[in-house]
């Protein structure tokens, strides 16, 4: 009650919070309004709480011709249709099991955490909103044993990246042009564009054509939804660069390859609890560079050739707190370690790891209750209201302006983002027309043997799990005429692939599972290694998209299966086949990379 | 000669096969030859009430048979 925005009044017409200045002359527009039971009237609620008031948590109120509801009532009305029975029907669960789960959660302390499963579906942001709401209304926030915590972090490699964000180097007019940046403003928090907007821009040349693709991830054809839709696009580009550790399907489309170091070959800072660890290179094979350097070198070269912003990015004065474009990894690592008053050299020579805070101070709970020395009031949360904003007015503002992620107001998205989570049935589902043709629901997700799209060229991993399996319930196996170990066709309107059938009780009837996969052994054939057994040939990258961040349907779509006479040509299955990838690399003498020299250093 | 023993809690093992791969790499074991092969037994039972274990093939045959025949008794092993 006291630490969420649920008692605050919402105008049902605008879905925005009522601000005191709308009701009372000269009142503070930054504060919020509650319905006071004592006076039966709206009153301004001062932060953090006013004990003189008796705010109603629930209710609908009429005031001067306007209708107000509390945030809690808005939330309750949103949830009301979803009874336990209804939820059980949607989720194919036993209602008794749901009740059992609720009791475990409610007994607490507990925490709901999301994996990537919901991210791989259009309903992604709403699932995250839902879990935050449930954790919060139970008070599982900054409490020992719960998951929503605010422990301090070493801050040397935010989101695993050493490179400075350097937002000032992106002119305001450029930000407005980011593909998908207007529709899916949630992406701005990661400075990301949306894949389907990029695909459309390449194919239609609208809002502008794209000419060059510099890729720094592994196999886009193994991991992008509806992979086949990208082939005409990549062939349309003028220049494609692949910056990676080893060749993948993507490399086969590239005009230039920039070989990068593996993680055992790189120096990196790792933030963990109250420590910063220096992860050091232990070997260096072949001629490769740390990709963080390659990006900086490309930009420095652009500056040399006259690019105005790249020139400015080399100027320490212009860059201020951000590191100007670096030439060596040491420069970058030292800049990141500045906040801990050490250099990379010192950390390597005996200060590894750095303990930046004592244990008892680090594990600080209830941060929101601590006094802010500036105001003398509790610190609260990092939101406009300093409360947990479970009624998400912030989402409406984000969709309309880009706040708080965009540096300047952007044009509004086509429709307002919902301030509360909602459920969306998958477009392709067993009750839909499409299920007559494709009766089974496909889901996917990773196995412990592989990590994302990597390790398919690792002999030890391939020996354990040589080729992707499709998991089929025994009843479905009988129905569709496939048996354990059979080559199986898996298809829908987007494509047709093969997999090895695994008949198992580990998957319920009506659902199949297949791990994403590509075949490095067939890179130099017409399939380029991604068309044989890649479940992402079947995934869906057409609408609906998530309103806020544009996620699409990588799980929960329809397929059909049937027996195949044989496997795809050239795919490897026997342990001895993988000898082609057994390690034979010669370790170079030095683990230190060689740096190029520059003609026009500085400005 | 030093004798070394592996103690594996099969109730915690998720079957990632990392021990199998690490053993092969460390001992330079060729493809198709195994010092420590992780087996998958199960899942047995009907969805969703089933269980699976991932014992090493170093586990004596008798115990493996016990596992195959009745998983719920594996704590007695």
Plain-language structure description:
The complex is a heterodimer of chains A (603) and B (77). Chain A is 23% helix and 14% strand. Chain A has 18 helices and 17 strands. Chain A has a six-stranded mixed β-barrel. A three-stranded antiparallel beta sheet of chain A has the order 1-5-4. Residues 596-603 of chain A have low confidence and may be disordered. Chain B is of the alpha+beta class. Chain B has two helices and two strands, in the order H-E-E-H. Chain B has helices at residues 18-26, 61-69; strands at 41-46, 49-53. In chain B, strand 1 and strand 2 (49-53) form a beta hairpin. The longest helix of chain B has 9 residues, at 18-26. At the A-B interface, helix 17 of A face helix 1 and strand 1 of B.
Structural topology:
The complex is a heterodimer of chains A (about 600) and B (about 80).
Chain A: E1 9-11, H1 20-23, E2 32-36, E3 41-45, E4 60-63, E5 66-70, H2 71-79, H3 84-91, H4 95-107, H5 124-137, H6 172-175, H7 195-204, E6 212-215, H8 220-223, H9 231-236, E7 239-244, E8 256-259, E9 268-272, E10 275-279, H10 291-304, H11 308-312, H12 316-319, H13 329-337, H14 344-351, E11 354-355, H15 359-362, H16 393-401, E12 440-443, H17 459-464, E13 469-472, H18 474-480, E14 487-492, E15 495-503, E16 511-514, E17 557-563
Parallel strand pairs in A: 6-7, 7-8, 12-16, 13-15
Antiparallel strand pairs in A: 1-5, 2-3, 4-5, 9-10, 10-11, 12-17, 13-16, 14-15, 14-17
Chain B: H1 18-26, E1 41-46, E2 49-53, H2 61-69
Antiparallel strand pairs in B: 1-2
């Amino acid at each position: 009650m006291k630490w969420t925005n649920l008692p605050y009044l919402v105008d049902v017409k605008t879905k925005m919070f009522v601000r005191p200045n709308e009701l009372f002359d000269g009142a503070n527009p930054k504060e919020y309004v509650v319905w006071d039971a004592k006076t039966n009237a709206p009153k301004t609620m001062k932060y953090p709480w006013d004990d003189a008031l008796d705010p109603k948590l629930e209710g609908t109120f009429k005031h001067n011709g306007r209708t107000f509801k509390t945030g809690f009532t808005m939330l309750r009305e949103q949830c009301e249709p979803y009874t336990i029975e209804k939820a059980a029907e949607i989720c194919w669960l036993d209602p008794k099991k749901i009740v059992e789960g609720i009791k475990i959660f409610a007994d607490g302390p507990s925490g709901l955490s999301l994996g990537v499963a919901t991210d791989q579906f259009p309903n992604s942001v709403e699932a995250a909103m839902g879990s935050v709401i449930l954790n919060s209304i139970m008070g599982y926030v900054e409490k020992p044993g719960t998951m929503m915590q605010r422990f301090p972090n070493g801050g040397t490699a935010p989101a695993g990246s050493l490179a400075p964000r350097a937002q000032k180097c992106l002119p305001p007019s450029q930000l407005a042009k980011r593909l998908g940046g207007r529709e899916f403003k949630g992406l701005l928090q990661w400075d990301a564009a949306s894949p389907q907007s990029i695909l459309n821009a390449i194919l239609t040349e609208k809002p502008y054509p794209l000419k060059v693709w510099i890729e720094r991830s592994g196999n886009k054809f193994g991991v992008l939804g509806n992979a086949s839709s990208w082939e005409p696009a990549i062939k349309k580009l003028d220049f494609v660069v692949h910056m990676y550790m080893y060749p993948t399907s993507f490399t086969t489309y590239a005009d230039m390859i920039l070989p990068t170091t593996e993680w055992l070959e790189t120096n990196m800072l790792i933030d963990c609890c109250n420590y910063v660890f220096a992860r050091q290179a232990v070997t260096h094979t072949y001629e490769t560079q740390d990709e963080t350097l390659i990006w900086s070198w490309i930009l420095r070269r652009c500056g040399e050739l006259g690019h105005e912003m790249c020139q400015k990015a080399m100027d320490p004065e212009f860059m201020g707190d951000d590191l100007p474009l670096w030439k060596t990894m040491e420069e970058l690592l030292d800049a990141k370690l500045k906040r801990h008053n050490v250099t990379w050299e010192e950390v390597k020579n005996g200060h590894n790891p750095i303990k930046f805070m004592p244990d008892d101070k680090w594990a600080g709970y209830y941060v929101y209750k601590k006094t802010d020395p500036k105001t003398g009031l509790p610190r609260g949360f990092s939101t406009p209201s300093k409360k947990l904003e479970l009624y998400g007015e912030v989402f409406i503002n984000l969709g309309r302006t880009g706040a708080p992620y965009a540096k300047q107001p952007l044009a509004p998205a086509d429709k307002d983002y919902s301030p509360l989570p909602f459920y969306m049935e998958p477009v392709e589902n067993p009750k839909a027309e499409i299920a007559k043709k494709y009766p089974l629901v496909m889901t996917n997700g990773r196995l412990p043997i592989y990590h994302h799209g990597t390790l398919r060229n690792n002999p030890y991993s391939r020996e354990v799990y040589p080729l992707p399996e499709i998991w089929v319930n025994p009843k479905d196996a009988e129905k569709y005429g496939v048996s354990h170990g059979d080559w199986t066709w898996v298809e829908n309107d987007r494509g047709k692939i093969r997999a090895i059938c695994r008949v198992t009780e580990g998957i319920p009837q009506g659902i199949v599972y297949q791990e994403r996969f590509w075949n490095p052994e067939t890179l130099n054939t017409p399939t380029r290694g991604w068309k044989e057994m890649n479940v992402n040939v079947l995934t869906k990258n057409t609408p609906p998209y998530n309103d806020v961040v544009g996620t699409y349907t990588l799980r929960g779509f329809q397929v059909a299966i049937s027996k195949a006479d044989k496997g795809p040509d050239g795919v490897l299955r026997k342990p001895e086949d993988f000898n082609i990838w057994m390690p034979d690399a010669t370790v170079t003498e030095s683990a230190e990379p060689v740096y190029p020299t520059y003609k026009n250093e500085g400005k | 000669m030093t004798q070394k023993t592996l103690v594996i809690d099969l109730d915690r093992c998720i079957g990632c096969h990392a021990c199998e791969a690490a053993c092969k790499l460390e001992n330079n074991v060729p493809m198709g030859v195994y010092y420590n092969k992780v087996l998958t037994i199960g899942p047995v039972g009907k969805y969703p009430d089933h269980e699976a274990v991932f014992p090493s093939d170093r586990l004596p045959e008798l115990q493996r048979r016990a596992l195959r025949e009745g998983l719920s008794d594996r704590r007695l092993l």
